[in-house]
Amino acid sequence: MTETLKFEDIINIRKDFPIFNTGKKLIYLDNAATSQKPSIVIDALHFFYSKSNANVHRGIYTLSEEATIKYEEAHKKVAGFINAKSFREIVFVRNTTEAINLVAYSWGRKNIAKGDVIILSQMEHHSNIVPWQLLAREKGAIIKYAEIDNRGKLRIESLESLLKGKVKLVAITQMSNVLGTINPVKKITSMAHKAGAIILIDGAQGVPHEPTDVQDIGCDFYAFSGHKMLGPTGVGVLYGKKEILNDMPPFLGGGDMIKSVSFEEARWNDLPWKFEAGTPAIAEGIALGVAIDYLKSLGMTKIRNYENELALYAMDKLKDVNDIEIYGHLAEERGGIVSFNLKDVHPHDVASVLSSENIAIRAGHHCAQPLHDRLGVSASSRASFYIYNTTEEIDALVNGLKKARKIYG
Ligand code: C6P
């Protein structure tokens, strides 16, 4: 029997989220943008600021020492959650975007030279395109894109054909934020390594939604955001293999990332602090650890299966809406994201009609303009699910779309 979240689980989960218990109707289907937060995460922030606020790694007094212990413990929880070898491989940053930029600036500027090749895919988010474009422009490197097929699946043969010559880096998403496609990142990692390249996985839509084991994948870097996995905004994670992080120059200079500084020079701190310059998002980092406890208590395999059920249910029901085009038709290899267009209705109009029914979806290019070019549209509507969504909410979405169809003809 498939391990999944049951109806009773969802009822209980919803009780944990204050935003669903205000007495106002809210059907929140924009989880790929950011997730809602359970009380324990909100309470952790409140507790830190009201009872244990102090800076970390600086004070020789109890409050600061306690804050330091909790902040370091959060790194250990993240390491355990994605099965990193050590917390030293876990750098807290602001979000996925910053994590990828860190690698592009630090690793990229040291290791990428004129004529080198960086491989991305056609389904990448701007955060996993623009930092590489900046690097490529500066260094004279070349970016190539592995293609997707019409079902929204990565064409492995296309990737394979690009993995030759001076390929130095592959940077690819674990799950597309538009198509919901889940890429075979372990296989891609082994292909990249065989070609002598380093690989970065954009896990923004990965780790919140499925069990993730960086050692099993074998990737060199893995980037994700806390706010998409029940945690607060302002904290994200860069995982990097210790030997690679050790070999990289710092990204930002300042307090905490040094061992010593003289008027002439500085010596870098141990990992991960070498990459955490300045006062970090302490409360947020600690609260991310609490979000991880919550996700673990539900079970990531159950979450993955439940979201897949919701996506398949949605794809089936959406077919009842006249003149709808749904993007990406994979079944098992997709997560809880479904993007679509109502023929001749702008996605912003679709979102406005749904908003009048208190249904929140995202409309636009979802920071994936090149992917929309590939799909031949300028924008789409997107419903993205998480642990608290139900099939009844999907039914309400479908009814809302039928209403939009009626209004716009
Ligand atoms: N996608 C969405 O609505 P940040 O903003 O740094 O936390 O995450 C960036 C990012 C990187 N990669 C992928 C695959 C993503 O989906 C995102 C964020 C949101 O789809 C906001 S644009």
Descriptive account of the structure:
- The protein is of the alpha/beta class and 409 residues long.
- It folds into two domains: 7-30 and 299-408, Aspartate Aminotransferase, domain 1 (Alpha-Beta Complex), CATH 3.90.1150.10; 43-296, Type I PLP-dependent aspartate aminotransferase-like (Major domain) (Aspartate Aminotransferase, domain 2).
- It has helices at 7-15, 39-52, 62-81, 96-111, 130-139, 156-162, 185-194, 214-217, 242-247, 282-298, 300-318, 347-355, 369-375, 391-408; strands at 27-28, 90-93, 117-121, 142-146, 167-173, 198-202, 221-225, 236-240, 258-261, 266-268, 324-327, 337-342, 359-360, 362-364, 380-384.
- The strands form four sheets. The chain has a seven-stranded mixed β-sheet with strand order 2-8-7-6-5-3-4, with helices on both faces. The chain has a four-stranded antiparallel β-sheet with strand order 11-12-15-14, covered by helices on one side.
- It is globular.
- The N and C termini lie far apart (44 Å).
- The relative contact order is 0.16.
- The model has no long low-confidence stretch (mean pLDDT 97).
- The protein binds ligand C6P.
- Ligand C6P binds next to helix 4.
- Residues 32-33, 95-97, 125, 127-128, 173, 177, 202, 204-205, 225, 362, 366-367 line the site of ligand C6P.
How does the SSE layout of this entry go?
Layout: H1 7-15, E1 27-28, H2 39-52, H3 62-81, E2 90-93, H4 96-111, E3 117-121, H5 130-139, E4 142-146, H6 156-162, E5 167-173, H7 185-194, E6 198-202, H8 214-217, E7 221-225, E8 236-240, H9 242-247, E9 258-261, E10 266-268, H10 282-298, H11 300-318, E11 324-327, E12 337-342, H12 347-355, E13 359-360, E14 362-364, H13 369-375, E15 380-384, H14 391-408
Parallel strand pairs: 1-13, 3-4, 3-5, 5-6, 6-7
Antiparallel strand pairs: 2-8, 7-8, 9-10, 11-12, 12-15, 14-15
Bound molecules: ligand C6P.
Residues 32-33, 95-97, 125, 127-128, 173, 177, 202, 204-205, 225, 362, 366-367 line the site of ligand C6P.
